[in-house]
Write a structure and sequence with these properties.
Order of helices and strands of chain A: EEEEEEEEEEE
Helix content of chain B: under 10%
Helix content of chain A: under 10%
Radius of gyration of chain A: 14 Å
Strand content of chain B: over 45%
Radius of gyration of chain B: 14 Å
Order of helices and strands of chain B: EEEEEEEEEEE
Strand content of chain A: over 45%
Number of strands of chain B: 11
Largest sheet of chain A: 6 strands, mixed
Number of helices of chain B: 0
Shape of chain B: globular
Distance between the termini of chain A: 38 Å
Structural class of chain B: mainly beta
Oligomer: heterodimer
Chain lengths: ~120, ~120
């Protein structure tokens, strides 16, 4: 049973426009959310995160929005650039045993930014 | 430079053989993780460890084993019991914070092909 869902396997946008990547979750114990970017045959790199006590976090061209009541978050990239073309993973964390935690990932969305 | 290193990048093994994937980090991170990526499946957690000589099963631990004898190292053994071992394996590490708010840093991955 998928606890983190990225329902769009792919998204294509024009350079300079906004990219919006969506993520839904089912586990109400998740308290921290992250977005990772991944190129083929490489490890994911961290992009941006948001705590459950916030509803927005911004870092340059990247903004993450969290709607706790809807259990939904989104990543906005504006303006989109061709170098942003990659697979984007949404991830969520919950308190585990003691102070550890583990990340649960969605299946990813392939973003293609066309010049 | 601080980082997390996986070796080798590509690995081929015959069916029925055990194989060990290496993961080393010099970030002084307490927690380490192993994920597996399959096409269309996102990242699935195999094992994780928050402290030396302690580790927990993730969502798909069957057919795998790990050890954590040193803080810097978290090798993963893919045993002959793993039914579908061919995949892209990712190791990650993170700090442990009381509130669980920290990102995981990933290695470059190991592509294992079993023939």
């Amino acid at each position: 049973d998928q606890q983190v869902k990225q329902n769009s396997p792919s998204l294509s946008v024009q350079e300079g426009r906004i990219s919006i990547l969506n993520c839904d979750y089912t586990n109400s114990m998740f308290d921290y959310f992250l977005w990772y970017k991944k190129y083929p045959a490489e490890g994911p790199t961290f992009l941006i995160s948001i705590s459950s006590i916030k509803d927005k976090n911004e870092d340059g061209r990247f903004t993450v929005f969290l709607n706790k009541s809807a259990k939904h978050l989104s990543l906005h990239i504006v303006p989109s650039q061709p170098g942003d073309s990659a697979v984007y993973f949404c991830a969520a964390s919950e308190r585990g045993r003691g102070s550890n935690y583990k990340l649960t990932f969605g299946k990813g969305t392939l973003l293609t930014v066309n010049p | 430079d601080g980082g997390i290193t996986q070796s080798p990048k590509y690995l081929f093994r015959k069916e029925g053989q055990n194989v060990t994937l290496s993961c080393e980090q010099n970030l002084n991170h307490d927690a380490m993780y192993w994920y597996r990526q399959d096409p269309g499946q996102g990242l699935r957690l195999i094992y994780y460890s928050q402290i030396v000589n302690d580790f927990q099963k993730g969502d798909i631990a069957e057919g795998y084993s790990v050890s954590r004898e040193k803080k810097e190292s978290f090798p993963l053994t893919v045993t002959s019991a793993q039914k579908n071992p061919t995949a892209f394996y990712l190791c990650a590490s993170s700090r442990l914070l009381g509130r669980g708010e920290t990102e995981a840093f990933f290695g470059q991955g190991t592509r294992l092909t079993v023939v």
